[in-house]
């Protein structure tokens, strides 16, 4: 039996960032206790003693989680799953939300991968993003993590920030590299409907770097990280070596099975992708009734399954094997990417042996290629 991944969504934050559209709520100790009780009930309802080799705590701000809450979740996972010894356990961390007691407990319980939501190493940009930490907080957090022996640390960076000077992004990237992290993730800021940033954007209260400037920033990042030895293995992700790729996230891009727990968490199994309720109280009520709190279900059929496979696999820089695709689906990749030959002619997609892969130029225009699939 192939091992599955477990995702735990912790929705609480000290303050919601104005660009964030993830399901999140202001932290409350009482609400956290209630929520963790329901998470453990959901694990009991859904888990069937599958083998687990990755656990990922996302949010929200899971680094706010109390030690008691974290211990309860681990106890439930170990009770209802078969956990492999070489487990990858990731927790997302906001700078300034950790202390020595917490890190000591994390080490003891087995957390071995940290993803720090840096976003920028420019204080003025952090203010624009509505972040509650400073560059100084990030440095203190990183130093403390190293002091406690965490040797697999990812740094998240954002580019295309309102009013951003590209040179500030390059400075942030250089600063990140100076810390010698094992992994770097880089995301362009997307203005999502329903966020405070969206309201301000449609009112014309701020401007964003234009498409060419945005493309130049990411091309610079790709080239620099490649020069200093990072492996660009997924559109937004770079690892020091092949052993430092995020094993949990690779499950998403390889269309492998994963189980999500908590409000708005998604799962994928047996060609079915399903998401939990985003409303906290509906989530509670469903579990009270011994029902899985599923709000959305997508069943991949003979037509949509190959498209979905291409959509997620093409995010990986290794691309998709034409031979494996044909053996799996009985059709050619070109049957699902009508303009494949044009994309290859324009230098957006390349053929490497029997694999179809995005080029660097293709990475910058990936959404245009994905639209051709869907």
From TrEMBL:
SUPFAM superfamilies: Radical SAM enzymes (SSF102114). Its cofactor is [4Fe-4S] cluster. Pfam families: HemN_C (PF06969), Radical_SAM (PF04055). The keyword Signal does not apply. It is found in: Cytoplasm. Transmembrane segments: none annotated. Residues 1-231 form the Radical SAM core domain. One of its GO terms (molecular function) is 4 iron, 4 sulfur cluster binding. CDD domains: Radical_SAM. The keyword ATP-binding does not apply. InterPro entries: Aldolase_TIM, Coproporphyrinogen-III_oxidase, Elp3/MiaA/NifB-like_rSAM, HemN_C, HemW-like, rSAM, rSAM_sf. One of its GO terms (biological process) is porphyrin-containing compound biosynthetic process. NCBIfam families: hemN_rel (TIGR00539). Belongs to the anaerobic coproporphyrinogen-III oxidase family. HemW subfamily. This is Heme chaperone HemW. It comes from Dictyoglomus turgidum.
């Amino acid at each position: 039996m192939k091992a599955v991944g477990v995702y735990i969504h912790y929705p609480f934050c000290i303050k919601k960032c104005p660009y964030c559209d993830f399901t999140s709520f202001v932290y409350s100790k009482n609400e956290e206790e209630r929520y963790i009780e329901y998470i453990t009930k959901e694990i009991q309802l859904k888990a069937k003693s599958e083998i687990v080799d990755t656990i990922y705590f996302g949010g929200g701000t899971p680094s706010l989680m109390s030690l008691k809450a974290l211990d309860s979740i681990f106890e439930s996972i170990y009770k209802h799953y078969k956990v492999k010894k070489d487990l990858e356990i990731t927790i997302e961390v906001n700078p300034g939300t950790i202390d020595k007691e917490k890190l000591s407990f994390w080490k003891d319980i087995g957390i071995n991968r940290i993803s720090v939501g840096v976003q920028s190493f420019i204080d003025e940009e952090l203010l624009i993003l509505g972040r509650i930490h400073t560059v100084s907080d990030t440095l203190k957090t990183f130093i403390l993590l190293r002091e406690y022996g965490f040797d697999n640390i990812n740094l998240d960076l954002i580019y295309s920030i309102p009013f951003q000077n590209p040179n500030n992004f390059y400075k942030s990237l250089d600063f990140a590299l100076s810390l010698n992290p094992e992994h770097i993730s880089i995301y362009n800021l997307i203005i999502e409907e329903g966020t405070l940033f969206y309201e301000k954007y449609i009112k014309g209260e701020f401007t964003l770097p234009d498409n060419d400037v945005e493309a130049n920033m990411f091309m610079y990042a790709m080239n620099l990280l490649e020069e200093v030895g990072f492996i660009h293995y997924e559109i937004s992700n770079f690892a020091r070596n092949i052993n430092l790729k995020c094993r949990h996230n690779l499950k998403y891009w390889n269309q492998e099975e994963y189980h999500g727990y908590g409000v708005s968490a998604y799962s994928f199994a047996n060609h079915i992708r399903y998401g939990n309720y985003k409303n906290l109280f509906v989530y509670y009520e469903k579990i009270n009734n011994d029902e899985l709190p599923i709000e959305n279900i997508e069943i991949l059929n003979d037509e949509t399954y190959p498209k979905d496979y291409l959509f997620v696999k093409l995010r990986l820089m290794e691309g998709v094997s034409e031979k494996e695709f044909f053996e799996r689906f009985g059709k050619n990749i070109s049957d699902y990417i009508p303009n494949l030959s044009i994309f290859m002619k324009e230098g957006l997609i390349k053929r490497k042996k029997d694999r179809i892969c995005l080029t660097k130029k293709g990475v910058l225009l990936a959404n245009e290629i994905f639209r051709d699939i869907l």
